[in-house]
Every structure is written in structure tokens, then in C-alpha cells.
Amino acid sequence: MRSDGSTSVFQLKNQGPIYLIGLGHGATHWIAGTFYILLPALTKDLGLTYTEAGLLVSIFHASSFAANFGSGVVVDVTGRKVIFQIMSLVVGAAALAVFGVTALYFVLALMVVLIGATNNLWHPPAIAFISERYPNHRGYALAIHATGASIGDMIAPAAVGFLLISFSWQNTAMISTLPIIAVVAVYFFYLMPMDRPAPGERRSSITFGEYLRGLAQLVRRRAVLGLCLMASFRSMAQVGLIMFLPLYLADVLLVEPWLMGLTIMGMHLGGVIVSPIAGTWSDKVGRRPIVMAGLTATTVLILLLPLMPTTSLFVAAVSFLGFVLYAVRPVIHSWMMDLAPAEVSASATSLLFGTQAALSVLMPVVGGAVADRYGLVDVFYVIAGIMLVANLTVVLLPGLKKPR
Fewer beta carbons within 10 Å, N or C terminal of the chain? Predict the structure, then answer.
């Protein structure tokens, strides 16, 4: 696939695919964000415990783990990237639609499996597409991709929160499928032609044997495995925050759904603002300093959250948390693409997101058990401890250089 080449040709007119991929990434996070904001209403309506609610979130991440590795193999071997992004969006929209017509826990759990698959079917083809097409501006391009996620994370809680004022959680789930359908239509019209090689151009695919050799080379690198481990602890903490912040707001601070949605929106707004800055800056100063600063600040802020004396201060602290929590996300992705050979870039993404999903499975159930036994406040201290481990892992990473 064609790349952006040198800096001199990297103009706004060449960046259209970056912003469209960001739009699609936002749609996948719209799906996940809708699920998380529906969770308190769903939990109350069905009479679930925190542990049972946490099990749904663990199922989400378990299915993400399973979907991740399969998509990486298929993308690297076939060279097709756009079609798998479209499939991801279609599966997620269908799952939300079923949410709107059932209240059976077992069926909802099956739909959560599909929503989790949507989340990580997306990343290998999308990140590989961007990394291959814009190799000289990887940090910036992946920052726009991450910004799309933050926009989806930001808009979904506010929109769903306001919809819950007038509609049941089931009707809200149905309405939430409409933006996803619109994005799928845009992809078919604008990006699908890019999934086919131009005349005389060879598709960037490899044989299965070449794929296995490249993957074996990748997993033998200590820096790659250390980066995956660090990202996994950070992801565990992020999952804990996304799940337990709405529950804390609803059950401890007793806020209305619309304020809960606006609070989560404020957290993700920080990601929208800071992701492009952090990604572009990491292209210049390196990945490690940005990641270390973001993780350290995140740890401190999580420890301070339960100490906020008023709801207003809590909401303000959550908003500021978003700036540091999401600043490091595109930088970690860029760091992995720096290390990965181009022919297995999708599988490197699968490895990164797969390990994140594997450890993230534990957080909802562990957090739910802690909340049931000790209360929601203590969950934040567990999350802060996990983020501290991520900090220590960054310190222990070996010196990282781009592969030849």
C-alpha cells in the first residue's frame, strides 16, 4: 500500500484516510461506551450484584482477547485491512440492536461477547493500515486514531446519559446503533477502494510461513514483551476506571444519569485534546518520556479521587485525569509499531491488544468482589496500585531502538 513518503508531501489533502480511520475507531468506542453507561441501569433493572455486573465486563475483555489474535493473522496474510474494519463495526451494531430486544442475562452475555470482539477486531487492521501508509508520521497518525477513540468515548456517555432520561436502557441501545450504521456507509463509499491495490501495485501480504517466522522473531524481543506487559497493567487500570466510575457516581455520589454521562465525557475530552499533542511530541522527543510522565500523573490522580470532598471537585478531578490517562495511549501504539517489522505489524498490534485484554479480564471481577466486600472506594486504591506496577515496568524496559 502507498505511504506518505517524505515530510514534504504530507499535506492536509493526504491525511483524509487518517481522519476516516479515526472516525471508525470512534464508532467502535461508541459501542463500548454505550455498553458501560447502560451497565448501571441494566444492573439495577435486572437486580445484579457488582460481581455479576463485573462478570459481563470480564466477558467483554475475554472475547476481545480471543478476537485479537485471529484478526491479526488474517490481516497480515491477506493484506486486507478496510474490509475487516467494516466487519468489526457491523458486528458491534448488531449486538447493540439485540440489547434492545432482550433482558435475559445469558443472551446479554452473548452480545457482550460480540461487542468485545468488535473492540479488538478493529485494532490490528486499522493500526496496520495507518502505520504502513504513514511511516514517517506514525506518532501523529496514530494519535489521530486514538483521538477518534476518545471522541467516541466522550460523546457516547453524554448521549446515552441524556437518552436514558426519556428512554429505557433497551430503547437507548437500539437508538445507539444509528451512528454506527452511518459510519459503515462512509467506509463503503470512501475507504473500500483503498483495500484493493492500484494497477501495477502489489498487495502487502505474506505467506503463512513468512508470517510465523516474523511473529517468532517479534515475540523473542524482550522490549516487545516488556512493552506489552506495561500496556496491560495500564489497560487493567483503565478498564477499572471505565467500569467503576459510573457505578461510583450512581451509587455513592447519587448523581443523575445525565451528570454521570457528562462526567465520563469530561474525562474523555482530555484524551481528545491531548492525544495529538502527545503523539506528535513523541515523534520528536521519544516514546519513553511521554509514557512515564503520563503513567505517574495518572497514578497520583487515581489515589486522590476518593478524597475529593464534593461532587464538583470529583467531576473536575475526573476531567483532569483524562488528560494524563489518554495521553500515553497513541504513544504506546507508536512504540510498538517502531519495534515491529512491517510484514507483521497487524500481528504486533494483536499481541499488544491481546495481552491487554488477557489481563483486563481480571479487573472487573476482582474489582467487583472488592466493591461487594469493602465498598466502591477501595476499588480506586486497587486501581492505583495496578497503575503503579505499570510505572515500574516502564522503568525496567530495556533501551529501545527502531528495527532496521
Answer: C
Range of the domain at 171: 11-195+205-396
For residue 83, the domain's CATH number is 1.20.1250.20
Query: Is position 2 within any domain?
Result: no
Whole-number Å distance between alpha carbons of 173 and 164: 10
Q: How far apart are CA 128 and CA 402, in angstroms?
A: 16
Looking at the domain assignment, is residue 139 inside a domain?
Answer: yes
8 Å CB contact between 3 and 132: yes
Q: Evaluate whether residue 128 is within a structural domain.
A: yes
Q: What is the pLDDT of residues 330-358, one digit of tens each?
A: 888 888 888 877 666 767 777 787 788 77
Q: What is the pTM of this model?
A: 0.68
Q: CA 177 from chain center: how many Å?
A: 19
Report the number of distinct structural domains present in the chain. Answer: 1
Rounded alpha-carbon distances, angstroms, from residue 39 to 175, 176, 287, 385: 16, 14, 35, 25
> Which residues have a Cβ under 8 Å from the Cβ of 87 and sit 6 or more positions away?
121
Residues ≥6 apart with Cβ < 8 Å to 209: none
Overall size of the chain counted in residues: 404
* Lowest mean pLDDT segment, chosen from 11-15, 61-65, 305-309, 351-355: 11-15
User: How far is CA 389 from its chain centroid?
Assistant: 20
